[in-house]
Every structure is written in C-alpha cells, then in structure tokens.
Amino acid sequence: MANRLLVLYIRENGLLVNRLGISISRKVGKAVLRNRIKRLIKEQIRLNEGKISPGYDLIIVVRAAAGTLPKNVAFKQIGESLLNLVDRHKIRGVS
Prior knowledge:
The chain is an alpha+beta fold. It contains two helices and three strands, in the order ββαβα. The protein starts with 5 loop residues before the first strand and ends in a 6-residue tail after the last helix.
C-alpha cells in the first residue's frame, strides 16, 4: 500500500520481532537529504514500535515527494504517513 510519501510492503517473518528495510532513490535528493530521511524513518519506527504488531518484515520505499518536505514538518509528516500505512495494512498493535 502507498500514500504520497511512502510505500509499505509487509510480509510475515515468523519471528517475534519486526525487521526493517528502507529503499530510497537518488531521485529524492542528494545523499545528505536521503540519509536524513532514512534517520527520520528509523526514529519514527523506534518511537512507534509498540504500535506495530511484531512478526513482520517491513520494506519502506520513499517517494520523491518526501524530499520536497520542509525540514520543520518532515518528521511529523513521515510519522503520520507511516502510521497511516500501518493502519491500512491492519498490523497496528494494541498500544
């Protein structure tokens, strides 16, 4: 499933933990911006770890629109997009 900023692919992994993969194209921007977006995604996953049911492999593909976000709203927007996709995939945990 996808939204304006992210695409999320999931697959059950048979483990008690989630594993994360992030793919971001050079079309998104220079290396500094791509690495910043990856750090923002990892931090959002860490903060919302309890909200995602365990036992899945999560592959997040970043769309080019994520590179156009202003710095002051990027963290919030990426978090909202991520939780939106988690809800749409129906893997939201209890907390």
